[in-house]
Design a protein that fits this description.
By secondary structure, the protein is of the alpha/beta class. Helices cover 34% and strands 19% of the residues. The chain binds 2-acetamido-2-deoxy-beta-D-glucopyranose (3 copies).
């Protein structure tokens, strides 16, 4: 159920052994000599950092990157590279027999598969898919249900060889969501890494769900009994090697490359990339959202990094290595891999155990480390916790301040005296070879960011985006070491802010909902025109739901999340989603919708009790009955209401923020019944409409 939990092994204490000789005069002299010898040159930013974005047609809230000389967006960085497949082909041309994908067995060095071998394997595997009846067109969806590994990437490339689209599945989706995806995309063939994952898919088929599933391909060995069990329900099980044969036909730019299913729960918006967080039972994922992407979005975005190419000091080179551990089921990690491939660079996979990540880092010595803020926070906390004595602490802070001062003059390096004395053991823990780090998926605290910029002595970029825009929207400019913003629009994006009057954000003040347009914006949700229309307006603007503010130097700051807000008749403002998130902590509550309006003076709620706990929860209160009966039982309603109000009180809800009455509803809000968006937000207007009779009844009853 849960995904990776980050358990980093403890980082070493910074070495603070200032020898006494350093305090002598001789030391000062040698220090000066040392400084002169290693005096660095500051980094030249690619544009004026005081004007990082440019207003389009004189509209100051609609802006593009200052890197482009005209309002035309960058669609393709290299004219001939228009698909993810072509990106790989470019790397293949550059690197040939050079290393491409790396993996390691416990306590062993990394072993590498060359570009030529990867291409060959992908090609024959793709042909194998054709043999199994997959059609070479973008409406053919192939499932992958596996942890990051070379086989994952080879399988993805195999699909692209024949224009097929990849649908990543992952544990945290939960069984119901998995069934929904497999049916929606009519998937017949799924690649799995291990027998247990394949078995969970088989279980659905045995129950009569996912009728289209007919073939499972495993990366690892499986037992005879399993194959037998599969045969009984008409599913063929193969090992990866068995599927390899030959053929050829690369995809066209407009074709779908990837169908990416993002996850979340009602009322609990999860960041689409943030799956390093374990999900608690109560927040288990229930529904999924299918998104479609076109090939060209991937290639216009690969210059997530490459757009800074022309600056020389910062570009991905063939020698670069990244470590792959963020789930490949998310766009962010896929973008990174293809950004490496296009330059013929290397991708090393972690062993599959996040607690061994630091060990893998030491063995791989990556130059590029993609991270989520949570991981950087861990590293920061561990460094801080390891420095206990006040003296050491003072030295550490002093060293950090010296390095920060250098950063402010544009110098990034890892060979100062402070690095040798204080920071190099920390750097060594991360492999000792980092050139750049990219953090995305959630905001990072300015303190942690500037501390680590000093400590790690490498470039740390911050990006902002979401799955619907292929993970990228804005990116911090090389050479900008300030914090508290997410940089300027990527050269492939136009970003504007629009009014949210109910939250008091107005574009004329440079604040509002962030909207984005450009080639990396997604094509729509799979088979869901209504949701597509809600996310993408008729002019092609993607409405992100985040609230941003333009800063005077043309960078964007994320200030809030768009919320639904209304006023009660006595004039109090209510943010229902905040209240719903609190009520979700009540044990019997699975889903909750809080309603109120300016004609009423209090709130009411629609609650879907959790089918898994509700019956037992009732029994503990001496009430016996089926789930359905309990939902209609007024005593149960009272008990749930009391529990919710107690939870609300504990969480500090004011009395006007508490619901006064409830309706218990036995059927979950879902994408299928139209009450959730594909990104699992409640469709508030629809829920209100559907439950209007119950809502009216509650108000009438309590009024009397
Ligand atoms: C946008 O900028 C990139 C990088 O400078 C350049 O290659 C591209 O031609 C520019 N596009 C336009 C239309 O100016
Ligand atoms: C310092 O950075 C360079 C790359 O910029 C890298 O090659 C070197 O290994 C790094 N040294 C340490 C100690 O991290
Ligand atoms: C950009 O503006 C923000 C807010 O005014 C500031 O914090 C940041 O330091 C500025 N960055 C640069 C590079 O001037």
């Amino acid at each position: 159920q849960t995904c990776h939990r980050l358990l980093l092994p403890s980082l070493p204490r910074p070495s603070l052994s200032l020898s006494s000789s350093l305090l002598g005069l001789g030391a000062v002299a040698s220090l000066t000599a040392y400084w002169l010898a290693t005096r660095p040159r500051p980094m030249r930013p690619p544009c004026d950092l005081k004007a990082q974005s440019v207003a389009i047609r004189g509209d100051p809230v609609c802006r593009r990157s200052a890197l482009n000389k005209s309002d035309c967006l960058l669609y393709f960085y290299y004219d001939d590279i228009r698909t993810a497949f072509a990106m790989f082909q470019r790397g293949l041309k550059i690197a040939g027999d050079g290393p491409c994908l790396g993996f390691r067995k416990p306590n062993q060095p990394y072993e590498w598969i060359s570009y030529n071998e990867v291409a060959e394997q992908a090609h024959v595997l793709g042909s194998g898919l054709l043999v199994k009846g997959c059609q070479p067109n973008p409406q053919q969806f192939v499932g992958i249900f596996a942890q990051n590994s070379p086989q994952w990437t080879i399988t993805e490339l195999a699909c692209y060889y024949y224009s097929m689209a990849v649908v990543p599945l992952y544990d945290t989706l939960g069984p119901e969501a998995m069934v929904h995806i497999l049916d929606l995309a009519e998937i017949s063939l799924v690649f799995c890494d291990r027998e247990d994952k394949a078995a969970s898919l088989l279980e659905n088929k045995e129950k009569g769900a996912t009728p289209t599933l007919s073939c499972l391909v495993l990366f690892k060995d499986f037992g005879r009994a399993f194959a037998e069990r599969a045969r009984k329900c008409d599913v063929e099980v193969l090992k990866l090697e068995q599927l390899m044969v030959s053929g050829k036909e690369p995809p066209q730019p407009q074709d779908l490359a990837v169908v990416c299913f993002t996850s979340g729960t009602t009322g609990t918006p999860y960041d689409v990339f943030d799956c390093l967080r374990g999900f608690s039972r109560r927040r288990r994922l229930r529904v999924i959202s299918p998104l479609c992407f076109a090939h060209f979005s991937i290639s216009s975005l690969f210059f997530f990094f490459s757009s800074f190419l022309f600056q020389g000091s910062f570009e991905i080179r063939q020698e670069d290595v990244t470590i792959s551990y963020l789930p490949l089921a998310h766009m962010f990690e896929r973008m990174i891999q293809f950004s490496m491939f296009v330059h013929g660079a290397r991708v090393g996979f972690y062993q599959g155990d996040i607690s061994l990540l630091m060990d893998d880092m030491r063995a791989l010595k990556p130059t590029f480390f993609p991270v989520v803020p949570r991981l950087l926070n861990r590293i920061y906390d561990q460094i801080m916790a390891s420095v206990t004595s006040p003296f050491r602490r003072a030295v550490l802070h002093f060293a950090v301040r010296r390095k920060q001062a250098e950063l402010n003059s544009g110098i990034v390096r890892n060979n100062t005296l402070w690095d040798m004395l204080v920071f190099n053991k920390i750097q060594a823990k991360l492999g000792g070879n980092l050139r750049f780090v990219l953090t995305a998926s959630a905001p990072i605290s300015p303190t942690v960011l500037s501390f680590l910029r000093a400590t790690l002595g490498c470039l740390i970029f911050e990006g902002y985006g979401q799955t619907e825009c292929t993970a990228g929207c804005t990116f911090s400019m090389p050479g900008d070491f300030s914090t508290g913003h997410v940089g300027a629009p990527l050269p492939c994006a136009i970003v504007k802010v629009v009014d949210i009057p109910e939250m008091n954000y107005f574009a004329k003040n440079g604040e509002g909902e962030i909207c984005m347009r450009g080639p990396s914006v997604f094509g729509g949700y799979l088979k869901d025109p209504q949701s597509t229309a809600e996310a993408l307006d008729s002019d092609g603007w993607l409405h992100t739901g985040d609230v941003g503010q333009w800063l005077p130097n043309g960078t964007l700051r994320i200030v809030d999340r768009k919320k639904h807000i209304f006023k009660l008749s006595q004039g109090e403002y209510i943010a229902p989603e905040k209240i719903e998130n609190i009520y979700m902590r009540s044990v019997p509550v699975l889903q909750v919708f809080v309603h109120g309006d300016s004609l009423e003076s209090y709130l009411v709620g629609i609650v879907v009790p959790d089918p898994e706990v509700f019956v037992d929860w009732a029994k503990e209160r001496g009430i016996v009955g089926s789930y359905q009966e309990l939902c209609e039982n007024p005593d149960m309603k009272k008990a749930v209401l009391e529990d919710m109000r107690a939870v609300g009180k504990e969480a500090g809800l004011k009395s006007f923020e508490q619901v006064r009455d409830l309706h218990l509803h036995p059927e979950m809000f879902s994408v299928a019944n139209g009450l959730l968006t594909p990104t699992f937000k409640s469709r508030r207007a629809d829920i209100r409409r559907v439950f209007q009779p119950q809502i009216s009844k509650m108000y009438k009853k309590t009024a009397n």
